[in-house]
UniProtKB/TrEMBL annotation:
Keywords: ATP-binding, Nucleotide-binding, Transport. The keyword Transcription does not apply. This is ABC transporter, ATP-binding protein, putative. One of its GO terms (molecular function) is ATP binding. The keyword Nucleotide-binding applies. Gene3D superfamilies: P-loop containing nucleotide triphosphate hydrolases (3.40.50.300). It comes from Rhodospirillum centenum (strain ATCC 51521 / SW). Residues 2-228 form the ABC transporter domain. It holds the Pfam family ABC_tran. The lineage of its organism: Bacteria, Pseudomonadati, Pseudomonadota, Alphaproteobacteria, Rhodospirillales.
Length: 306
């Protein structure tokens, strides 16, 4: 669906994309993640045919982007973070216009019903809320029944219900169909929930790529375990368990903290120690590392404005 090899793009002395390579296969939702200024937007714009690369190669649906995407344009759907829609057109007019651009469009009425805008058919686009406009943009993007979706921070203006709807629509569009989607997002929750694989980029280069679970296991394995026990429980009881981090005094109680590269052996050791010493284990908390932990480890914690 998408093949990127050594892609490069500069603006003056700034190298926005610096030898980026990755693939998107049929049936995948791939997330392109990175801090501000990492090169995500430039990469998406090149793949959408909006910018020409300085070097490297990018194929979209088998077509070299440097030669233009017109032959495959009707097979592509795009959702931008902030879509510039015709404000004075009605929702129904815009849907009809979009459907006319494609050889095998979907049912426009059904799409508007799906995104909760069936009652807004006669309303001007300019009268819609930001979330409604974004849901409309998603409906328009798939109106032509595309094989490939480009989604640039598509849920940035959506409430939790709208976000869940869009996630469901993307899954329905891709799962088991041979279609694919490339997504940019700053939401690690969204990437972890929606993407079969993610590519983490920074300074225009690929840092890591794989499924969210595989990236967590590779870069931030392990878990943090804590529980409450009696205030008088001796530290020595817990210090003998590998992964002991410390004991946090609380009113009438103590909270004990452990960290280990693998959860199961740690829990087994804790259970054995509990049987041997008879201490209480209450309010047990288990926290595994997340894709967000991987992202921060690879890209750092420094704030980026651009």
């Amino acid at each position: 669906m998408i093949e990127v090899q050594d892609l490069r793009k500069s603006y003056g002395k700034t190298q926005a994309v610096a030898g980026l390579s990755f693939r998107v296969e049929p049936g995948e939702v791939v997330g392109l993640l990175g801090p501000n200024g990492a090169g995500k937007t430039t990469t998406m714009e090149i793949l959408e045919g909006l910018r020409r690369p300085d070097g490297g190669r990018a194929l979209v649906l088998g077509r070299d982007v440097s030669k233009g995407l017109q032959p495959v344009r009707t097979r592509i759907g795009i959702v931008l973070q902030s879509s510039a829609l015709l404000e004075r057109a009605t929702v129904g007019e815009l849907m009809r216009l979009y459907r006319l651009m494609y050889p095998e469009p979907q049912d426009g009425t059904a799409l508007l019903q799906r995104v909760g805008l069936a009652e807004k058919t006669d309303a001007q686009v300019g009268s819609l809320s930001g979330g409604q406009k974004q849901r409309l943009a998603m409906a328009l993007a798939i109106a032509g029944n595309p094989d490939l979706l480009f989604l640039d921070e598509p849920t940035a203006n959506l409430d939790p219900q709208g976000r869940a709807l869009l996630w469901d629509m993307v899954r329905e569009r891709v799962a088991g169909t041979g279609r694919a989607a490339l997504l940019t997002t700053h939401s690690m929750e969204e990437a972890q929930a929606l993407c079969s694989r993610v590519a983490i980029v920074d300074h225009g280069r690929l840092l890591a790529m794989g499924s969210p679970a595989a990236l967590v296991n590779e870069h931030c394995p392990g878990a943090h375990v804590s529980f409450e026990t009696e205030a008088q429980a001796p530290v020595e009881t817990f210090a003998a368990v590998e992964g002991f981090q410390g004991l946090e005094p609380q009113p009438g109680r103590s909270r004990v903290h452990f960290a280990a590269p693998r959860l199961e052996p740690l829990l087994a050791s804790l259970m054995a120690a509990q049987v041997a010493h008879g201490f209480a284990i209450e309010n047990l908390s288990v926290e595994r590392s997340t894709l967000g932990d991987v992202f921060l480890k690879l890209t750092g914690r420094e704030l980026r404005d651009a």
